[in-house]
Specification:
The protein is α+β, with helices and mostly antiparallel strands. The protein has helices spanning about 25-45, 50-55, 60-70, 100-105, 110-125, 125-155, 160-170, 195-200, 205-220, 240-245, 255-260; strands spanning about 10-15, 20-25, 75-80, 95, 175-180, 185-190, 225, 235-240. The protein has a 4-stranded antiparallel beta sheet. Strands 1-2 form a two-stranded antiparallel ribbon. Strands 3-4 form a two-stranded antiparallel ribbon. The chain is globular. The N and C termini lie far apart (about 55 Å).
């Protein structure tokens, strides 16, 4: 074999009735390609090395699948975000799921949600009244979701609540993880999947109501740093460490300031901005 050429080791089916042998790998290739896309959806923007490690494939095989997914418009290459000082050399390329890629994972019903919210907005008269009506609906929906998350957090220690929330979100299809950050110290709850991303892009009240629920469940101030609805690869919510420790402190005499519900400064308008 000449250097630079790769032997084709694709498994083949036995020839039928004297006909040519047929590749068996076509369906396997499609299945593996879907696994690659699903891994990016579940874990967020990933390098070829990340994917190879998670899926137990060679980087060469992963790159072939990534090339095909990029060509199909299901994933897109991006420059890897670096936290802290950047070292020498070009940053590793990461691959993120696209809107089309999300649609491929059964999100067509999201369009129905958009139409329903538009109907609520119009019924309330549009403008500020319409926006307020959508916000009222979003808060009611978020409150229902909170009841599904609450059992996961009830027994969790203060320092474990962010992880418990991520577990609860994952059970509801949000593929959530927790990332510890040193400065400012705290946890980042990362949702790698959003079933209503298109609706949230049109109606940011959905993101705002969800963030308010996170704040109440965690018993602390939280801050939304990024959202899939605004084009980020992951929905990221920051939970400061100071609030986690304060949540476990002995109760103090109630004051007007303390009697108020925990407030969230999160707003979809700040998506992607790091306040630090």
């Amino acid at each position: 074999m000449k250097k630079g050429h790769e032997r084709d080791e694709t498994p083949v089916a036995p020839a039928a009735a004297g006909g040519p042998a047929l590749p068996l790998a076509v369906e396997e290739q499609s299945g593996t390609r879907r696994r690659v896309a699903r891994s990016i959806l579940d874990h967020g923007p990933s390098t070829a090395g990340d994917l190879a490690g998670r899926l137990e494939l060679t980087q060469a095989a992963v790159r072939r699948h990534l090339d095909a997914l990029v060509a199909e418009g299901l994933v897109e290459p991006r420059e890897k975000r670096v936290y802290g000082s950047r070292g020498r050399g070009r940053p590793a390329k990461v691959f993120a799921i696209t809107d089309s890629g999300r649609d491929a994972f059964d999100q067509a019903y999201d369009e129905l949600a958009v139409e329903a919210l538009r109907w609520i907005e119009r019924l309330a008269g549009g403008g500020e009244r319409g926006a307020a009506a959508v916000m009222e609906f979003a808060r009611a929906k978020a409150a229902d979701q909170a009841e599904l998350y609450r059992p996961f957090l009830e027994e969790a220690l203060p320092e474990e609540r962010a992880r418990a929330l991520a577990e609860a979100l994952s059970h509801q299809g949000y593929a959530a993880t927790v990332r510890r950050v040193p400065a400012p110290a705290g946890d980042q709850v990362c949702q790698h999947h959003c079933p209503v991303a298109h609706a949230a892009a049109r109606f940011p009240q959905l993101c705002e109501a969800e963030t308010e629920v996170f704040s109440r469940l965690l018993g602390s101030h939280v801050q939304r740093l990024a959202t899939i609805a605004h084009g980020d690869g992951v929905c990221t919510t920051f939970v400061p460490e100071t609030d986690l420790s304060e949540a476990d402190a002995p109760e103090k005499p109630e004051t007007p300031e303390k009697s108020e519900k925990p407030k969230s400064t999160a707003s979809p308008r700040t998506a992607g901005r790091n306040p630090a």
